[in-house]
Design a protein that fits this description.
about 25% strand; 6-stranded parallel β-sheet; 15 strands; 5-stranded antiparallel β-sheet; 10 helices; UDP-N-acetylmuramoyl-L-alanine:D-glutamate ligase; about 350 residues; alpha/beta
Length: about 350
């Protein structure tokens, strides 16, 4: 591998500086392109993210602990929050439980995020993360969520089509709710692309496989999701490189594998890059991957090259991992870590393609 220079030029094409912040809270549903490049997020299976600390947690026993944080979440919601932290205009789409009474919309609107959800009967699922400070282990217990019907899926498809015509990028994140077929993301990616928007997919299993075949601009599985999809183990650098190549062969234009504290690997048809994360004291992994997705989407929308987008994503994910719950890092904390991210270009053997 060869080291790439670390300084970021502020004269480069959107690479070295953040897009201008939008101070106005956007309300309603505009009927023309937004004044600034906007990103839409799609959360099909929202959640209440609850984090508990239980010393000596043991399965099959009575455990007592304290609730550390409760956040309105779901991967797409987390991405939307992270994008606003970066100063990026964002609209949150997806499903919302009728019994919530608009709590999600109100929470996001208070942060300057436009929402346009499809309401679904039922209540929002709860995702419980249990942290054991004695061992450092984390246990996740996730509910399946409300069930959606064909009429809800059709309504969401119309909203994606509407907003994709005015947004620079649409990010699809998270699991599918009961009732949504595994090719749902593939269909919505096609809808958004036909309207001229770039697309990002962060999913797992069959939804990721079928979605990747729809040729999104970017997919971002983590190590476990890539291993499950490709039926292989990623235990070292060579494994990660092989996995990235296979992910590209599924259809996306860019594939990023997040590797936790080890950073991430990105691959396109033009090259492959490795970003190594700086060391921080990790508090929670809940929002780190979503912060990475947000930083990738923001950087690529702003004109950054793939390697620079990867660098910013690793800085964002690392900064967010130092926070509790599903909180995401501020722009300032990301910028502080950015010079510490080591970016390397992967040298491929002669005749090999990324």
């Amino acid at each position: 591998m060869r080291n790439e220079p670390n300084p970021v030029s502020e004269q480069s094409n959107g690479v070295g500086r953040m897009p201008a912040r939008t101070e106005v809270i956007i309300r309603g549903r505009p009927q023309r392109p937004y004044a600034e490049p906007m990103i839409a997020t799609v959360t099909m299976n929202p959640a209440i993210d609850k984090t508990m600390t239980i010393p000596g947690f043991a399965a099959g026993a009575t455990n007592r602990g304290a609730v550390e944080r409760v956040d309105a979440g779901g991967k797409g919601i987390n991405v939307a929050n992270a994008l606003r932290q970066l100063g990026c205009p964002v609209v949150a789409l997806g499903f919302q439980a009728e019994r919530d009474g608009g709590a999600f919309s109100d929470s996001l609107a208070a942060r300057g995020i436009l929402t346009d959800f499809v309401k679904v009967p039922g209540e929002t699922r709860v995702n419980l993360k249990i942290k054991d400070p004695a061992t450092g282990a984390e246990t996740e217990i996730n509910q399946t969520g409300f069930r959606v019907g064909p009429e809800h899926l059709a309504a969401l498809r119309r909203k994606v089509e509407e907003h994709a015509g005015r947004c620079a990028m649409v990010v699809f994140s998270g699991s599918l709710p009961p009732g949504a077929p595994p090719d749902t993301y593939a269909d919505l990616i096609g809808v958004a692309a036909c309207r001229g928007a770039r697309t990002v997919l962060d999913a797992s299993g069959e939804a990721l496989k079928l979605g990747a075949a729809a040729r999104p601009d970017l997919i971002k599985p983590n190590r476990g999701e890539a291993e499950e999809l490709l039926c292989l183990r990623i235990e070292g650098e060579r494994d990660a490189i092989a996995a990235a190549r296979r992910l590209l062969s599924l259809g996306p234009r860019m594939a990023v594998i997040s590797l936790g504290a080890e950073g991430a690997l990105a691959a396109t048809g033009e090259g492959m890059w490795r970003a190594r994360a700086p060391r921080v004291r990790a508090a929670s992994s809940t929002g780190a991957g979503d912060a990475m997705v947000a930083a990738l989407a923001w950087a690529l929308t702003g004109g950054a090259a793939c390697a620079e987008a990867l660098r910013r994503a690793v800085a964002a994910g690392t900064a967010s991992a130092a926070l509790s719950g599903s909180r995401v890092a501020t722009l300032e904390s990301i910028e502080e870590l950015l010079p510490q991210v080591v970016l390397e270009s992967v040298d491929l053997p002669a005749g090999a393609t990324p």
